[in-house]
Amino acid sequence: MYLYIYDSFLSEPKYSGLLSSVERRITDLDIKGKIARLSILKNTKELILDAVKNGYTTIVAVGDDQTFAKIINVIAPLDVTFGVIPSDAKSSIARVLGIPPRELACDVLAARSVKKLDLGKINNYYFLNAAEIQNAKVSINCNGYEVMPTTTRNTVRISNIISATDAVKSNPTDGILEAIITPISTRLFMHHALHPTVLPFTKIRIHTDEEGGASILTDEHTILKTPAVVEIAPKQLRIIVGTNRLFD
């Protein structure tokens, strides 16, 4: 059975046409299910756990990348299949998965090509796309070695899936994460990214001596703090993908 979860921002009147089109298409394709609408009064985790107890085996998130990130972190430990319907064409996660926007995504759901993807895990928090630290003096411990950014301005990106801005093309099925450490130089009030260091890994530890720890932004949604253990969770997410996905 399908559970369709609409993010709270879709309650705005401008999205009514989109939702009507999606609902007509899932009816035409005979993949109807229960619709749940998120709000500040609803606990997402409780909603999903109750649905799974009641026999729902496919959880479909309708919204944007933040919607998908929020729900992935809940369903990662569960025995369910995940699907996405992007509310627009801006979703980087949907692009990698080969999912077209709006009601066109319903055809991919109906075709039901399922892959098992790796997830990243920071302490007890899962992420699909990437986690990023900016301009922090952090130390990364991996296999007995310690690596640190060489400049005050820098980015440390933990990558699991392909991004147009990544120095490497990460693969969410290879059982490996990449730490991409990019120093940034400042000259004449201009910032220039220098050649990055790429560290493939399955488990690292990140810490800093800075008071309060360094902030880690995961999937552009949740901010975590160091110290942190970052590791791969192989084949953790069962997800419906399209034929135009950017990985095998």
UniProtKB/TrEMBL annotation:
Top-rank taxon, per record: Bacteria
InterPro entries, per database record: ATP-NAD_kinase_N, Diacylglycerol_kinase_cat_dom, NAD/diacylglycerol_kinase_sf
Annotated DAGKc domain residues: 20-122
Coiled-coil regions listed in the entry: none
A GO MF term: kinase activity
SUPFAM superfamilies in alphabetical order: NAD kinase/diacylglycerol kinase-like
A family per Pfam: DAGK_cat
Name of the protein: DAGKc domain-containing protein
Organism of derivation: Candidatus Komeilibacteria bacterium RIFCSPHIGHO2_01_FULL_52_14
Lineage: Bacteria, Candidatus Komeiliibacteriota
